Amino acid sequence: MEKLKRNFWIIWIMVTIISFLFFFLGIKFILESQITVQNVIAYIIVSLLFGAISSCLYLLKLKIACAALIVGIIVGFFEMYRMFFNDLNGWGDLVGLMSLFTWMAIGLCAGTIGQFGYFLYKKLRTNKKAQ
Fold first, then answer.
1. What is the pLDDT along the chain (131 residues), one digit of tens a residue?
2. DSSP letter at 31?
3. Which of 17, 23, 31, 54 has CA 20 to 30 A from 40's CA?
4. Are 26 and 47 in contact (CB under 8 A)?
């Protein structure tokens, strides 16, 4: 149980810090936007949510869902940066953030479906052994 709790905190801290850095660096240096205190607070809150969701999935032993969510967040940041570089006539920042949240949701849904499929597989396998 101790290892599970330790990994819970490691996942939470790493996802939170990396998400915050990706937000801050993307907005500050790629978009070259002015960063305000409200922006930093928003980045911290969203980063904490990303970290909390991924680490709670790990704590609940939903490792497939946790991994898929983290992959979705990584792909989302990649897409966000890609939209920032494309600029899209001033809509690049909004479209980039929307793509980040879309990919995060896709990762969460795909992970949940994958975790449910794994659960059904294990249940079917144990039922066959019992017979």
1. 688 889 999 999 999 999 999 999 998 988 888 999 999 999 999 999 999 999 999 999 999 999 999 999 999 999 999 988 887 677 878 888 999 999 999 999 999 999 999 999 999 998 888 77
2. S
3. 54
4. no
pTM of the entire structure? Answer: 0.89
In a 3-state reduction of DSSP, which class is residue 60? Answer: coil
Tell me how far apart the 2 most distant CA atoms of the chain are, in Å.
66
**Rounded-to-integer distance, Cα 21 and Cα 25, Å:** 6
Q: Which two tokens stand for residue 49?
A: 């949510």
Among 53, 79, 78, 77, which residue's Cα sits nearest to residue 66?
Answer: 53
